[in-house]
Design brief:
The complex is a heterodimer of chains A (about 180) and B (about 350). With about 180 residues, chain A is mainly α. Chain A folds into 3 domains: about 40 residues, no CATH class; about 60 residues, no CATH class; about 55 residues. Chain A is about 50% helix and about 10% strand. Chain A has 7 helices and 2 strands. Chain A has a two-stranded antiparallel ribbon with strand order 1-2. The radius of gyration of chain A is 27 Å and the shape is rod-shaped. Chain B is of the alpha+beta class and about 350 residues long. In chain B, the strands form 2 sheets. Chain B has an 8-stranded antiparallel sheet with strand order 2-3-4-5-1-8-10-9. In chain B, strands 6-7 form a two-stranded antiparallel sheet. In chain B, helix 2 packs across helix 5, helix 8 crosses helix 9 and helix 11 crosses helix 12. Chain B is globular, with a radius of gyration of 21 Å. The chains are: A mainly alpha (about 180), B alpha+beta (about 350).
């Protein structure tokens, strides 16, 4: 094949670029290829490539048998795309690919539990959730022990905190 | 004053300490999957914090869209370690928040929505984290971050999830390199969750014996634990490098000093300087200055020269694009002039 650019030398570098299902092919000689840097992105060996390898290790069954239905409802990324680029599309991906991610995280991070900083805003909901869960457990015990005064007190506290949290979420949705 | 020309603890071995955190805004797709209007929303959200950051840190910050930054300037930001190549590749949607001292930078729409970093001269990891944490808290006042109870800060690449923090120490290790101890060190640190790479040059080559050592894992230990771990290991590497320098000096004596002075002499007189040899000589000269063997220059002088000798720095100075051989000639000119300039200013004092 002759180089598409200079139409003289032998084409030794072949590229296929696919954007939105639109395929562009390019056959160039080495010299012309060097001048087409924007078309060519020579794949570097990155951590993302390595990740893809780990994805398969996590499963007894090979990845290509994985049902294609695992698709993130947040951004539409599917398992194959994720595996290919080693990058997630949105925060929901962590939920949808959770079972694939766990072994990867254990391997590359050695842990799956964050113990560091908790952001005040995003974390405040979290802390409230924890508090509510704790009170609910206490409430259950109080009812079992027929400590109704304590139970009523806890019920009011839970209600108040839940209302507060709903207001916060409502405000956030309005802003969106 | 940028970190390059400011003194810092342990500067003879440690050029700079850098911490960066990755953050994403809740309910907006990560840059890998987002559309232009999402990107604009992210940039606008961060921009809202600009006045807050200015007021609370007392530093003047500038906000810029990368598309408005001239191409040579973009490359200089990369050479100064203030921005990444990824940010420049996303130039249609990416932006940058930079303080006038060039210590705190917030990259917007890089691999994650927000990549904030603090870089300080010398060995100052804790101070860098303190400053960066403060800025993170200010930005968070206007933004709800994507955060998960168990996994921590959610990032585009699972290698950054958790703290989203990468702390690194930029080290000059010429004596350990000369003693062929680097491989053993690199292998050892990988066993304690750290990783190292050369800063200048490509692939495994570390031009100028300059390495960046950072934490590999981001999930599990807290920010403080990760920083402590890195500090402890790097402190030992600093000590080992200093011992190796003394040992080299002791065993090779005048030959050792001669090599350093010759490197300085070449930088002062060369008419053509390739990047690779420039880095080798400036590394030798830095070693001489760091050990107090070459007077008249400070480590900050040498590090400023090192940045000035990188390709985009040269093109900026010359004011036009240059081919490789032109760059090598211009590099020699710039370094000669800069050395003269420093000597002159010292003599006038």
């Amino acid at each position: 094949m002759i180089c598409q650019e200079c139409k003289q030398r032998q084409a030794t570098v072949h590229f296929t670029k696919i954007i939105n299902n639109h395929k562009t092919e390019l056959h160039l000689c080495e010299e012309c290829a060097q001048q087409r840097e924007n078309f060519i992105q020579i794949p570097s060996f990155s951590i993302n490539d390595l990740l893809a390898g780990f994805m398969d290790l996590g499963h007894a069954q090979p990845a290509f048998e994985k049902p294609a239905s695992t698709k993130c409802a947040g951004c539409g990324m599917d398992y194959y795309q994720f595996k290919k680029i080693g990058r997630l599309g949105c925060q929901e991906c962590y939920k949808y690919f959770g079972s694939e991610l766990q072994p990867v995280l254990r391997r590359i991070q050695g842990s799956t539990q964050h113990t560091g900083k908790v952001p005040e805003r995003a974390g405040s909901g979290l802390l409230k959730k924890k508090q509510i869960a704790q009170w609910k457990a206490e409430l259950k015990r109080a009812v079992e022990m027929e400590a109704f005064e304590r139970a009523a007190e806890l019920r009011d506290k839970i209600k108040a905190l839940e209302q507060l949290e709903n207001q916060r979420r409502g405000k956030k949705n309005e802003l969106d | 004053m940028s970190w390059i020309n400011e003194t810092g603890p342990g500067r003879d071995v440690v050029l700079a300490s850098r911490i960066r955190i990755a953050r994403n805004i809740a309910d907006i797709p990560f840059p890998s999957a987002m559309q232009a209007h999402h990107a604009a929303e992210v940039a606008e959200n961060v921009r809202k914090s600009l006045n807050h950051i200015r007021a609370e840190t007392g530093s003047s910050f500038a906000f810029m869209y990368i598309r408005d930054v001239p191409v040579v300037e973009r490359q200089i930001l990369v050479e100064k370690h203030l921005a990444s190549q990824d940010l420049m590749q996303n130039h249609e949607v990416s932006a940058l928040l930079l303080d006038s001292e060039e210590k705190i930078v917030v990259m917007i729409n890089e691999e994650d929505h927000i990549r904030a970093q603090c870089i300080l001269p010398g060995f100052q990891l804790n101070q860098a984290w303190e400053k960066l944490n403060h800025v993170d808290n200010i930005i968070e006042k206007n933004i709800e971050y994507a955060f998960h109870e168990q996994l921590g800060y959610l990032t585009c690449c699972p290698t950054n999830v958790g703290t989203g923090m990468r702390s690194s120490v930029m080290m000059h290790l010429p004596a350990l390199t000369a003693n062929k101890q680097m491989n053993a060190i690199l292998q050892t640190i990988s066993k304690v969750g750290l990783t190292a790479r050369g800063i200048y040059g490509e692939g495994s080559e570390a031009l100028g014996s300059i390495y960046q050592i950072s934490n590999q894992i981001t999930l599990g230990p807290s920010e403080e634990e990760l920083i402590n771990n890195l500090t402890i290991i790097c402190r030992q590497i600093v000590e080992k490098e200093r011992i190796a320098r003394k040992a080299l000096h002791k065993t090779s004596g005048m030959q050792f000093e001669d090599a350093l002075w010759r490197a300085y002499g070449i930088l002062q007189n060369a008419r053509v300087l390739e990047l690779k040899e420039f880095m080798a000589f400036i590394s030798q000269m830095r070693l001489g200055v760091g050990m107090g063997l070459i007077p008249d220059f400070s480590l900050e002088d040498v590090d400023t020269l090192m940045t000035a000798g990188q390709p985009a720095g040269i093109m900026k100075k010359v004011g036009r694009a240059l081919d490789d051989s032109e760059i090598d000639i211009a590099r020699a000119d710039i370094i000669r002039d800069a050395l003269d300039e420093i000597l002159k200013s010292k003599n006038n004092l």
